[in-house]
């Protein structure tokens, strides 16, 4: 049994998935550590320490605990039912970008359909999420959140949803200013033409967090049945 669950986009098996897993050092599809590539004098293990446990993914519904009345099988069935009624999303591609102090792949093109998919998932699948405890609510209630984000945090367990949703595939932890350019250059060369263009989301993946905090693929479900 897993302690938390999440709904992610994860790439289908292939070069992009393999390279991304190796960069981060964790293959969530296989549930195993992966050796980092050797690139110049970069300490990739240190650069990717924070996002490693999540694997190569883009969040659609952030990690949550199940309600006491729900089971993993019921959640999986709920995800399958949800996905059957949703259409695949196609965007122009992905671009390596700086978000705050970390680097991530972000979608290019009109993200309206992707935002709608994520918003609907957060509402429909929230029935399986256990409410945050008062301690968790206090810890996650950061000073920079807007009033609306605090409402989302209380009602859906996560503040970065709806109009605040920004899909991204995290590739590093926080970087020092002098690390941004060399790491970005290294990543661009490393991923190269394996970065998908166009970028198609035709499935969602139910993932679970193990006792060590690492996420595993439970089931990939096609959008549109």
Percent of residues in helices: 25-40%
Number of strands: 11
Strand content: 15-25%
Largest sheet: number of strands, sense, barrel closure: 4 strands, antiparallel
How are the strands of the largest sheet arranged?
Answer: 4-1-10-11
Unreliable parts: none
Shape: globular
Distance between the termini: 27 Å
The whole-number mean of residue pLDDT values reads 97
Please, what is the oligomeric state?
single chain
Radius of gyration: 17 Å
What structural class do you assign from the helix and strand content? Answer: alpha+beta
Number of helices in the DSSP assignment: 7
Spell out the helices and strands N to C. EHEEHEHEEEHHHEHEEE
Describe this protein's structure.
The protein contains seven helices and eleven strands. By secondary structure, it is of the alpha+beta class. A hairpin with a 2-residue loop joins strand 6 (93-99) and strand 7 (102-108).
Topology:
Blueprint: E1 4-9, H1 15-24, E2 26-27, E3 32-33, H2 44-47, E4 58-64, H3 72-84, E5 89-91, E6 93-99, E7 102-108, H4 112-124, H5 134-140, H6 147-156, E8 169-170, H7 177-191, E9 199-201, E10 203-209, E11 215-222
Antiparallel strand pairs: 1-4, 1-10, 2-3, 5-9, 6-7, 7-8, 10-11
């Amino acid at each position: 049994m897993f302690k938390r669950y999440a709904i992610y986009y994860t790439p289908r098996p292939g070069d992009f998935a393999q390279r991304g897993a190796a960069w981060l050092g964790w293959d969530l599809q296989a549930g195993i550590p992966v050796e980092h590539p050797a690139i110049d004098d970069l300490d990739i293990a240190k650069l990717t320490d924070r996002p490693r446990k999540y694997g190569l993914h883009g969040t659609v519904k952030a990690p949550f605990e199940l309600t006491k009345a729900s089971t993993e099988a019921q959640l999986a069935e709920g995800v399958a039912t949800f996905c059957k009624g949703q259409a695949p999303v196609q965007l122009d591609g992905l671009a390596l970008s700086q978000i705050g102090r970390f680097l991530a792949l972000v979608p290019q093109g009109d993200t309206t359909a992707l935002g709608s998919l994520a918003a609907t998932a957060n509402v429909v699948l929230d029935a399986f999420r256990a409410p945050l405890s008062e301690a968790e609510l206090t810890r996650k209630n950061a000073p920079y959140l807007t009033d609306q984000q605090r409402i989302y945090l209380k009602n859906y367990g996560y503040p970065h949803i709806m109009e605040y949703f920004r899909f991204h595939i995290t590739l590093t932890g926080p970087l020092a200013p002098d690390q941004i350019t060399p790491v970005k250059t290294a990543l661009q060369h490393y991923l190269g033409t394996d970065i998908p263009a166009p970028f198609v989301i035709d499935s969602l993946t139910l993932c679970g967090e193990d006792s060590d905090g690492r996420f595993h693929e439970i089931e990939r479900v096609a959008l549109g049945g």
